[in-house]
C-alpha cells in the first residue's frame, strides 16, 4: 500500500478543525437560538 506499515488513517486537518467547531457550537444552546430560532421568529413576526 505504500503507507510505511502504519495502517492508520489520519483525517485532514481542515476536517478535524471544522468538526471541533461544530461540536463546540452545538454545546451552546444560546448560539443555536440566535442562529436558527431567532431569524425564524423574526421572519414570522
Describe this structure in words.
Helices cover 67% and strands 0% of the residues. It is rod-shaped. The protein has helices spanning 13-26, 29-44. The protein has one domain. It starts with 12 loop residues before the first helix and ends with a helix. It is mainly α and 45 residues long.
Radius of gyration from CA coordinates:
19 Å
Instruction: List the secondary-structure elements in sequence, H or E.
Output: HH
Structural class of the helix and strand makeup? mainly alpha
Q: Quick one: overall form?
A: rod-shaped
If you average the pLDDT, what whole number results?
A: 88
Task: State the distance separating the first and last CA atoms.
Answer: 59 Å
Number of strands: 0
- Helical run tally: 2
Helix content: 55-70%
How many structural units, i.e. domains?
Answer: 1
| Residues in β-strands, percent | under 5%
| Biggest sheet layout | none
Low-confidence residue ranges: none
Summarize the structure.
It is built from two helices and no strands. The chain has 45 residues and is mainly α.
How does the SSE layout of this entry go?
Elements: H1 13-26, H2 29-44
Summary keywords:
mainly alpha; single chain; 2 helices
